[in-house]
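#help-structures

NK: newbie question. if I give both the sequence and a SMILES, will the prediction place the ligand too? trying with magnesium ion
OV: yes, paste both and it writes out the complex. here, I ran yours:
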Amino acid sequence: MSAALKLVDAPRRSVALEVRGVSHAFDLGGKHLPVLDNIDLSVAPGEFVALLGPSGCGKSTLLRLVAGLEQPDVGALLEDGAPITAPDPSRILVFQDPTLFPWRTVWKNVAVGLEARGLLPAHKQRVADALSLVRLEAFAQAYPHQLSGGMAQRAALARALVNDPHLLLLDEPLGKLDSLTRLAMQNELVSLWQKVGFTALLVTHDVEEALLLADRVIVLSDRPARIVTEFLIDKPRPRRRDDADLVHLRQTILATLGPVHD
Ligand SMILES: Nc1ncnc2c1ncn2[C@@H]1O[C@H](COP(=O)(O)OP(=O)(O)OP(=O)(O)O)[C@@H](O)[C@H]1O
Ligand SMILES: [Mg+2]
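OV: that's the protein plus ligand as structure tokens.
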């Protein structure tokens, strides 16, 4: 296996993301529905940015635009200076629901991206590497119904990581997990990000999660989403949930988001 294809210890392959003056609206049964309002956002290579905002404000829409699944009405999105015009395996979206194929083993679910691109025969080792990154080696031959919720979500992360994403787009990836599994997975996500070195954009409803994971937390307004404010989280990892600064920041952010949150 060539060094460039190793998932860990390879040269860091993160990218810079730039969202410039992006506005977007949908047509909802003939009604004009503005969803994003002049979003300007720069994410540095390897940075971990969290997005917080009210339900329905446009967070998933923003991730879909970054993924290249849709084009904005106004403005531009750039990856390392190049316009994002279509989906690309270097930018992968991970959702709340792991959406594994029930008839495929974990190994075959993780392999699906490489298989679709005709890369699997030469790069089977990457599947093993991705499974080992999420500590699922022993479950390679299991089927999705034989996994716990946390394991299924780890399999979904492995399925993303096998493609060596430069930009990982995480749309409430831990939202459906029970609270203890969620806490464990938050630590796993940080450790994956530290090991692999991708740029990360995480949407979450959980302020504490944003504070534990991200270098920067961006707060969006109600729809149409505008950037209200951002907070730099200049704290080494691993971070403690009961860190006095983070507890204080959590209160500040909750106050910014309004009483419906928490
Ligand atoms: N394809 C679409 N066509 C029409 N309207 C859409 C479409 N996709 C999203 N919307 C609308 O855009 C708005 C923003 O949706 P989006 O999914 O981006 O919100 P969100 O911030 O991710 O919400 P949540 O926190 O609940 O996941 C919603 O009002 C939704 O109804
Ligand atoms: Mg959403």
